[in-house]
Known about the structure:
Elements: E1 4-14, H1 18-26, H2 28-32, E2 42-48, E3 55-61, E4 67-78, E5 82-91, E6 94-108, E7 111-122, H3 126-148
Amino acid sequence: MTITNATFTIERVLNAAPAxxxxxxxxxxxxxxxxxxxxxxETLNRDFDFRVGGKERFHARWPSGMTTDFQATYHDxxxxxxxxxxxxxxxxxxxxxxxxxxxxxxxxxxxxRLIHTEQGSYLTGGIEAVQGREHGTTWHIDNLVAVIExxxxxxxx
Length: 157
């Protein structure tokens, strides 16, 4: 088996203070407004414990029958500044990757620079898996920006 190690960074400037952006990550209710799956998937398990050492899980079945399972542990949380977590991603029970995700929130006047950095070890799929992950992550972050700025999130494409 060949492992592909890769890093990507996504930056956005949001028209909101860091406290508001941080709050969008801090509860299941808030996160569900932007970190959402397409409406045609079935949620099998959803856990959310936002604290250092806490776990998050999103396990779902897609119309094709495929299951995805996101399992994360929060390692560092500094209110309004950063969130660091490690997550495993599974498809149909097979582990696809292990990723270290670092979110930095930097205040710029009344705005926030969000810096999302992922360092991943992709166990299957090579560079295409990395590109797919970056595409999906960009979709989630763009939906975060839309929700915070009062716009409608876009459908997954």
